[in-house]
């Protein structure tokens, strides 16, 4: 399973994202294949997800202030469920400043 930590935002926000992403990636690399990506817009992120190919459709978890808060244990259990189900791609996406659009939220699995 490959986990992609993606964000939507401008260059100024990207510096803060890169710092946090490096910390997360360093902690996670021993458990699964991970990478970080920054997209200019929600649309470019969703287009990239549409181009991902594999035997399973990618799972997209959108993070923003309107989402459900999970404990570390609940998050780890959810990631483990994706792995155990044979999921090839899990995209964890940090939203734009004003949150995700309704169209993007409909695509999310969590």
Question: What is the element layout, followed by pairings?
Answer:
Blueprint: E1 2-8, H1 11-28, E2 33-39, H2 42-51, E3 59-63, H3 72-84, E4 89-94, H4 102-107
Structure description:
43% of the residues lie in helices and 23% in strands. It is α/β, with parallel strands linked by helices. The radius of gyration is 13 Å and the shape is globular.
Concise account of the structure shown:
This protein is an alpha/beta fold.
What is the radius of gyration?
A: 13 Å
Helix share of residues? Answer: 40-55%
- What's the helix-strand series? EHEHEHEH
- Helical/strand content category: alpha/beta
**Percent of residues in beta strands?**
15-25%
State the end-to-end CA separation: 17 Å
Trace the largest sheet across and list its strands: 2-1-4-3
């Amino acid at each position: 399973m490959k986990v992609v930590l993606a964000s939507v935002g401008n260059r100024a926000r990207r510096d803060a994202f890169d710092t946090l992403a490096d910390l997360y990636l360093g902690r996670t690399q021993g458990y699964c294949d991970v990478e970080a990506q920054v997209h200019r817009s929600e649309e470019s992120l969703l287009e990239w997800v549409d181009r991902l190919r594999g035997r399973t459709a990618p799972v997209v978890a959108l993070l923003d202030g309107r989402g459900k808060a999970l404990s570390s244990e609940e998050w780890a259990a959810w990631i483990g469920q994706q792995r155990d189900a044979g999921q090839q791609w899990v995209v964890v996406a940090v939203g734009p400043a004003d949150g995700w659009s309704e169209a993007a939220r409909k695509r999310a699995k969590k």
